[in-house]
Amino acid sequence: MNHGHDLNRRDFLKISSLFLAGSAAISSQVGQALSSTNTAFAKDDREEVVHSFCEHCFWRCGIAAHVRNGKIYKITGSEHHPLSNGKLCPRGTGGIGQIYDPDRLAHPIIRERKGGKSSLRKASWDEAITYTAEKLYQIKEKYGPEAIAMLHHGYGYTFFKEMFKAFGVNKFAKPSYDFCCGPRLQGYTMTYGHGTGTPEGIDMMNSKYLLFFGTHYGENMHNTAVQEISEGIRRGLKIVVFDPRFSTLAGKAEKWLPIKPGTDIAMMQALMNVLISEELYDKKFVAENTVGFDELWAEIQHMTPEKAATITDIPADEIREIARTFASYAPAAAVHPGRRTQWYADGTQRVRAIAILNALTGNYKMPGGVVKYEKFKLPKPEAHPHPHFKKDVWSKYPFFVQTKPENSITSHEVVQQTLEKEVRAWFVYGVNVPETITLGRKTAIEAMQKLDFMVAVDTLPMEVTGYADIVLPECTYLERYDDLDGGRPYRTPFVSLRQPVVEPMFDSKPGNEIARMMAEKLELHGVFEDSVETYLDKRLNKVGSSLEEVKKTGVLVGEPTNLYRKPGEKLTFKTPSGKIELASAQLKSAGFDAVPKYIKHPEPPQGYYRILTGRKPMLTFGRTANNRFLNELPTARENEIWVNPRIAQKHALSHGEYVHLKNQAGIVSEFPIKVKVTERIREDSVYMVHGYGHYYKKLKWAYKKGASHNQLISKADIDQSTGAVGFQNNFVTFIKEA
Ligand SMILES: Nc1nc2c(c(=O)[nH]1)N[C@H]1C(S)=C(S)[C@@H](COP(=O)(O)OP(=O)(O)OC[C@H]3O[C@@H](n4cnc5c(=O)[nH]c(N)nc54)[C@H](O)[C@@H]3O)O[C@H]1N2
Ligand SMILES: Nc1nc2c(c(=O)[nH]1)N[C@H]1C(S)=C(S)[C@@H](COP(=O)(O)OP(=O)(O)OC[C@H]3O[C@@H](n4cnc5c(=O)[nH]c(N)nc54)[C@H](O)[C@@H]3O)O[C@H]1N2
Ligand code: SF4
Ligand SMILES: [Mo]
C-alpha cells in the first residue's frame, strides 16, 4: 500500500450524514430495541434499574440507570456506591443526552484516496479491522513498534492497552497526565512517598479550615468532593480561596484573595515563613517525621509576608492572619492539592509546596487533615506475555511518572516525535486531539498531517475523527462492559462494575469487542478470555464474589479505611529517606531545586491579558460538548469571556457584546465570544471555560458555540522534571466585531 508523503491527503474530512445516526435512525433503533426478541432488557413499561458507573469524567461515580420500554429515561446516583451516596453531579444525570445523541457515529468509516483526493466511506467492521491490523502490522515491520503510539483518555482503553502490549507497542500517552494529574502525583509522591488520589486524601468533611489555590469546587463538580465540602461547611468548616477570579467556591468562603496569577509559590512560601518564624508549626511532628527542615528555612526565610505582598498583591497582614488562623485550627486544617495542577511549568514544585505546608501543621493522618485512603484488595488481572517489549518508559523527563503501562510518554513528546517522523501511526481512544493536545490546536493538526496512519475510536464525529484514516464507532458507556474499577483508594474501598444498561445501538461496538477483533486479526493469542463476562467473573471470583452478584448493585464495598493515626503511632513514608521530604535530595541530584522556589512568570504584553480557564458544572469539554440534555440550560449554551469593568472600559466593550480574541502569536478565535463584564476577575486576566468553539459541523449542537480555548493556546511551558505542560502563559486581546 502506498502511504506516500502527500500532506494534503490528511486534510480535515467531513463525515457524510449517511454514516451518522440521525434522529430518524435513533427512533428506529429505539423501536428495534423495543421489539427485539433477544434483548435481555424490559420491553414493557415496568421500570428496571441497572447499576453501573459514570463516564462523564474520571471520578467514575456509581449510577442507577432507569429503563422503561427498552429505553433509558433517567439516570440517578447509586445508593450503593460510596462515591455517589445516591447523588450525581449534573453531568452524571446527562448520560441520556449522550446515548441518544442524534449525531452519534453509527458505522465504521474508512478514508479512501483516489487520484490525490480523499473521501470517506462507510465500511463493515471486518473491513475496518482488517485494514487497521494490516496498516499497524506494516508500520511495525518497517519502523518498529516505537513508531506506533496510543493516545487515550477515559475508562474503555484498558482492552486496547492489553492488545497493544501483546503486539509489542508500549507508547501510551494521555494528555490528562500532562496538564492535570502528572505533577500532582509526582509532587506529592516526592514529598510523602504516595500520591493524593482520586478522591483526594483530604478529610474535608471533618476539617475546620481549608485553603484552596485555584481549585474551583462548585464549578469543578467532583461529586463526592462537593458532597464532602458541603458536609464540612454544615459542620462549621471555614474556607479560604486564592484565585484571581471570584469562583463559586469563593462565594462559599470566609475569604477570597484575588492573588496575582502565577505567584502561588511565593504565597505558600510566605505562609510557611510565618508558621516557622512565629513557631506555629508542629515541632514534634516535623522533628520526628521530616527531613530537610534547615534547607527549607534557608530557602524561605527571605519570603516575609511583606515581600510576598509585593509579588502576590495580597497584603502582608492578610497573609499573616491566614497563616495564624491555619495554625490555630491545625491539625484539622489543610491545603487542598487541586486537580489540574500544571499551570506554569512549575506545577510539580507548587504541589510540593502544598504538601510541605500540610506537613508543617502535623495534619498527616489526623481528623480534618491529610489522610491516606486504602484500596479494595482486588488482585490485578493476569499479566499477558509481551515478548516484544523494548522499553517501559519512553519519556525523556527524569521525573515522568509511569503509571504502568497506561502512561509511558507525554503526549507532547508523541506530537514532537510525530513531527520528526519517528512516530508514524496513532491509535486515538477518547482524546479529541485538536481541542486538547498539549501544544495547541495548530501543532496538533500539523502532527496529524504527518502521520502515515491514524485510527480514532470515538462515540461522536468529534474534530479528531476528521483527521483519521479509520473511525471506529464505540458504543457509549451505557451500552457496554468495561474493566472493573477497582484499586482506587477511598475512605470506603470499593470495586465497581460497568455493565450494559441497553444493547449497543446502530453498528457501534464496545471497546472490549473491538480490541478482541484486532487481536484476532493480528494473530495475538491468549490476550483475552472467551468473553468479557468470563474475564470479569474470574476477576471477581478472586475476591469471593461473581459477576452475577456484582451486577445487582454494581459495586462491592469493603471495610472502611482506618484514616487516623493512633497516639504514639510511628509513621513511615515510602520516600528515599523514609520521611516526609521538605527538601528533596532526588530532585537536587537531578539538578532541580530541592525546595520549591518562586519563579517569576512572563507578564502580558501591553493591552493583552492572561487567559485563565476552568470548568462549568454541567459540562466536561469533549465528553459533553454535543450533549443536548446538558447544553440546553441557558448558562451552558456558550462560553463567555470574563473581563474586569475597567478593562472593558479601556477597550470600549460592553456586557453581552460579542468579540473575537487574538492571542500573543496573532491567532484569532475562529468564532466570537460573549463578553461578561464583572468585578469577579482581576484586571490583568480574563477567564473562559474550556470545551467550546467546536469547528466540526457534524456536531450539530456544539458547532460554533463560543470560542475555543485550545485554539488560543500556542505557547506551552514544559516542566523539565515531570514533562507536564502549562499553558497559562498565553495572553489575549479583544477584536471588536465590525
Ligand atoms: N463540571 C466539571 N467538573 C470538572 C471538569 C469539567 O469539565 N466539568 N473537569 C475535570 C478535570 S479534567 C479537571 S483537571 C478538574 C479541574 O479542576 P480544578 O483542579 O479545580 O481546576 P484548576 O485549574 O485548579 O482551577 C481553575 C481555577 O483556577 C484559577 N486560577 C487560574 N490561574 C491561577 C493562578 O495562577 N493561581 C491561582 N491561585 N488560581 C488560578 C481560575 O481562575 C479557576 O477558578 O475539574 C474536573 N471537574
Ligand atoms: N485548551 C485546553 N486544553 C485542555 C484543558 C484545558 O483546560 N484547556 N484541560 C486539560 C485536561 S485537565 C484534561 S483532563 C484533558 C482531557 O481531554 P481529552 O483527553 O481530550 O478528553 P475528553 O475531552 O474527556 O474526551 C474527549 C473525547 O472522548 C470521546 N468520548 C467520550 N466518551 C467516549 C467513550 O465512551 N468511548 C470513546 N472511545 N470515546 C469517548 C469524546 O467524544 C471526545 O472526542 O484536556 C486537557 N486539555
Ligand atoms: S463527578 Fe459527575 S460526571 Fe464525574 S463521574 Fe461523578 S457524576 Fe459523572
Ligand atoms: Mo483534567
TrEMBL record:
SMART domains, alphabetized? Molybdop_Fe4S4 (SM00926)
Residue limits of the 4Fe-4S Mo/W bis-MGD-type domain?
47-103
Q: Which UniProt keywords apply?
A: 4Fe-4S, Iron, Iron-sulfur, Metal-binding, Molybdenum, Oxidoreductase, Signal
Lineage, top-rank taxon, reads Bacteria
What does the similarity note say? Belongs to the prokaryotic molybdopterin-containing oxidoreductase family.
Protein name, please? Formate dehydrogenase
Q: Does the keyword Cytoplasm apply?
A: no
InterPro entries per record: Asp_de-COase-like_dom_sf, MoPterin_dinucl-bd_dom, Mopterin_OxRdtase, Mopterin_OxRdtase_4Fe-4S_dom, Prok_Mopterin_Oxidored, TAT_signal
